[in-house]
Amino acid sequence: MGHFAKVNIDLHAGFEAHFAALKTFLDEQESCFEPEVHPLLRGVLAHPGKRLRPLLAFGSGAGVGPHASLIKGAAIVELVHLATLIHDDVLDGADKRHGADTPNQTYGAHAAVLFGDALFAHALVLASEHTSSEICSIVARASR
């Protein structure tokens, strides 16, 4: 055993309403994609992982409730992250993530890359709806 004690902390505590709103928002995004994309989107959203990036977004808005712009910002961050994971799984030839088949495994590399690209594009669409155009620039730079 190492020198450090294991600490079990629920990082999501206090943000339950935020995560519920994020799940609802992400589920609602399905209608923004072509029907052929729906099963891929449902698949990646069914296995959310730790959702650390949205947690950081929620933490940056500490003191405010799960208002729409904070939820949308967290969704943008999560979509960019999911896109990078999907592309990474193609490059690595990964067939599992969080115990589930990756889009690469289920649909093949070409479909997975296109799906990742669609998630990037949708994140930019959501960012373009913000009152500040700087958000698009930030998302675009993060997506390089």
Give a verbal description of the structure.
- The chain has helices spanning 16-28, 38-45, 52-60, 68-92, 103-107, 109-128, 134-142, and strands at 96-97, 100-101.
- It has one domain (16-142): Orthogonal Bundle (Farnesyl Diphosphate Synthase), CATH 1.10.600.
- It has a two-stranded antiparallel ribbon with strand order 1-2.
- By secondary structure, the chain is mainly α.
- The chain is built from 7 helices and 2 strands.
- α1 (16-28) crosses α4 and α6 packs antiparallel against α7 (134-142).
Structure at a glance:
By secondary structure, the protein is mostly helical. It contains seven helices and two strands.
List keywords for this structure.
mainly alpha; 144 residues
Write the layout of secondary structure elements.
Blueprint: H1 16-28, H2 38-45, H3 52-60, H4 68-92, E1 96-97, E2 100-101, H5 103-107, H6 109-128, H7 134-142
Helix pairs in contact: 1-4, 3-4, 4-6, 6-7
First CA to last CA: what distance?
41 Å
Order of helices and strands: HHHHEEHHH
Determine the strand fraction and express it as a percent band: under 5%
CATH architecture descriptor name: Orthogonal Bundle
User: Which ranges are low-confidence, i.e. pLDDT below 50, for 5 or more consecutive residues?
Assistant: none
Q: Which sequence of strands runs across the widest sheet?
A: 1-2
Q: What value does the average pLDDT take?
A: 88
Shape summary: globular
